[in-house]
């Protein structure tokens, strides 16, 4: 009687019992599902944290005609809104990035000393963007600047030109004057 | 007569169903009862029922681990109080911090939070220094050393995220500098090494709006999004994770044989 009852509960052929192999495979399936769910949740969370819409200024803007800038002028007109200095050098106008190449602060244009001076760690750059003082390891970056059909300069911040990569001769990195 | 009555009152009080349901062990009169009292009390069970003599020597532990935890508790308490006044938006954040100093009653609360934060960073470093100098990172405590390194990281992250919240010039530029380091993360930072490998054809997968720095700030520069994000990290996300690791840390101190002995 006792033996019969035990067979009914534990026996490998009993429908009501769970075999060791069956239990293990369900265990694996269960944990795999759980791990996949967790992984999916993690991916969803990371994507959720990267917003689709940014309330930042346009990356492309109209910077006016070349004649609006005097020879040798460093214009801070677009600094606050777009993070760009328009600089008129001897033969060209360039769009300098206002991000210090050391650690990303915003330098100030000191007209009396004719240099960009960064308040964070003291890096300084000439009007053309070349670094000469402090810890900045490379010149300021220049952004794409082109003329449209009406002769207005268009600055595109998504494209940058680096002096140390020899990109400052690129025709899109300046407007000739 | 009066004394008898009083004794009778207290005897009935300590013997009452209410008292005995909260404190199962009666007045501890022997070692076993004292031990049982510690083991049956949630707050006391965090501490061992008995300690080796050297473990309470200030000269040996400097109490730096305990102080770190104490400062964490102070920071949690004062931090929650500050949340009643501080609004993490660019319109209000700076003014609320000034108000906390100038107009809020007991305005010293913010200074307590700030000073405790500085002290906690120092205490955690000194704790690590002590553990290193006494060789307490050695077997069987290697794992707990690693948990401690995680806790050090979260102490730093809490300190870093709290740095932005006053929303003054120092905060903005310090976080600008600090978060630019995230852009140099290998593979997932837009200026990091190996990022060029993660591309399909000529189109890179990691750009200015999809790298580690962007996820940290929720923006391409320090602005309203970064302020709110750092606030949530600082007040909820990092403290919760730190508490979990602290629980593991303290539990492992006990399980690894208590405070290590002198060599």
Task: Describe the structure using short key phrases.
heterodimer, A: alpha+beta, 2 domains, 7-stranded antiparallel β-sheet, B: 263 residues, mainly alpha, Cytochrome Bc1 Complex, Chain C, two-stranded antiparallel ribbon, 12 helices, 2% strand, extended
Report on the structure:
- The complex is a heterodimer of chains A (177) and B (263).
- Chain A is α+β, with helices and mostly antiparallel strands.
- Chain A folds into two domains: 2-48; 60-176, Rieske [2Fe-2S] iron-sulphur domain (Rieske Iron-sulfur Protein, 3-layer Sandwich).
- Chain A is built from three helices and eleven strands; from the N terminus they run H-H-E-E-H-E-E-E-E-E-E-E-E-E.
- Chain A has helices at residues 2-10, 20-48, 79-82, and strands at residues 60-65, 74-75, 84-88, 92-97, 108-110, 115-117, 124-125, 131-133, 142-147, 152-161, 175-176.
- In chain A, the strands form two sheets. In chain A, strands 1, 2, 3, 4, 9, 10 and 11 form a seven-stranded antiparallel β-sheet that branches. In chain A, strands 5-6-7-8 form a four-stranded antiparallel β-sheet, with no helix packed on it.
- In chain A, a hairpin with a 6-residue loop joins strand 6 and strand 7.
- The model of chain A has no long low-confidence stretch (mean pLDDT 90).
- Chain B has a single domain (60-255), classed as Up-down Bundle (Cytochrome Bc1 Complex, Chain C).
- Chain B has a two-stranded antiparallel sheet.
- The longest helix of chain B is centred in the last third of the chain and has 32 residues, at 224-255.
- Chain B has helices at 2-15, 17-22, 31-39, 42-45, 58-61, 64-82, 93-102, 108-133, 142-164, 169-180, 212-217, 224-255, and strands at 199-200, 203-204.
- Helices cover 63% and strands 2% of the residues of chain B.
- Chain B starts with a helix and ends in an 8-residue tail after the last helix.
- With 263 residues, chain B is an all-alpha fold.
- Chains A and B meet through loops of A and helix 10 of B.
């Amino acid at each position: 009687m006792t033996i019969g009852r035990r067979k009914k509960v534990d026996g490998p052929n009993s429908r009501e019992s769970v075999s060791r192999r069956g239990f293990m495979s369900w265990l694996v399936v269960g944990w795999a599902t759980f791990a996949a769910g967790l992984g999916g949740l993690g991916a969803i969370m990371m994507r959720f944290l990267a917003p689709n819409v940014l309330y930042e200024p346009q990356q492309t803007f109209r910077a006016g005609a070349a004649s609006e800038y005097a020879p040798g002028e460093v214009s801070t007109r677009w600094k606050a809104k777009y993070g760009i200095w328009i600089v008129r050098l001897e033969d060209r106008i360039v769009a300098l990035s206002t991000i210090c190449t050391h650690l990303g602060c915003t330098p100030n244009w000191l007209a009396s000393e004719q240099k960009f001076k960064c308040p964070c760690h003291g890096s300084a750059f000439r009007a053309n963007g070349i670094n000469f003082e402090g810890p900045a390891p490379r010149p300021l970056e220049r952004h794409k600047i082109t003329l449209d059909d009406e002769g207005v300069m268009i600055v595109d911040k998504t494209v940058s030109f680096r002096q140390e990569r020899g990109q400052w001769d690129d025709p899109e990195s300046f407007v000739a004057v | 007569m009066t004394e008898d009555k009083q004794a009778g009152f207290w005897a009935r009080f300590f013997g009452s169903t209410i008292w005995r349901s909260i404190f199962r062990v009666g007045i501890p009169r022997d070692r076993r009862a004292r031990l049982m009292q510690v083991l049956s009390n949630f707050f006391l069970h965090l501490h061992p029922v008995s300690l080796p003599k050297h473990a309470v020597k200030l000269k040996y532990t400097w109490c730096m681990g305990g102080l770190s935890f104490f400062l964490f508790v102070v920071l949690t308490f004062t931090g929650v109080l500050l949340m009643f006044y501080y609004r993490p938006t660019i319109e209000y954040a700076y003014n609320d911090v000034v108000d906390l100093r100038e107009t809020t009653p007991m305005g010293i609360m913010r200074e307590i939070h700030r000073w405790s934060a500085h002290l906690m960073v120092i205490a955690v470093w000194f704790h690590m220094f002590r553990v290193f100098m006494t060789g307490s990172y050695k077997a069987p405590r290697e794992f707990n050393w690693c948990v401690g390194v995680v806790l050090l990281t979260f102490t730093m992250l809490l300190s870093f995220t709290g740095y932005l919240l006053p929303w003054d010039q120092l905060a903005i530029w310090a976080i600008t500098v600090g978060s630019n380091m995230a852009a140099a993360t290998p593979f997932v930072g837009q200026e990091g090494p190996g990022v060029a490998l993660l591309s399909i054809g000529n189109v890179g997968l990691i750009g200015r709006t999809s790298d580690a720095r962007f996820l940290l700030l929720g923006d391409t520069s320090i602005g309203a999004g970064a302020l709110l994000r750092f606030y949530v990290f600082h007040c909820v996300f990092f403290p919760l994770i730190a508490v979990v690791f602290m629980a593991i840390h303290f539990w492992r101190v006990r399980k690894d044989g208590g405070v290590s002995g002198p060599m």
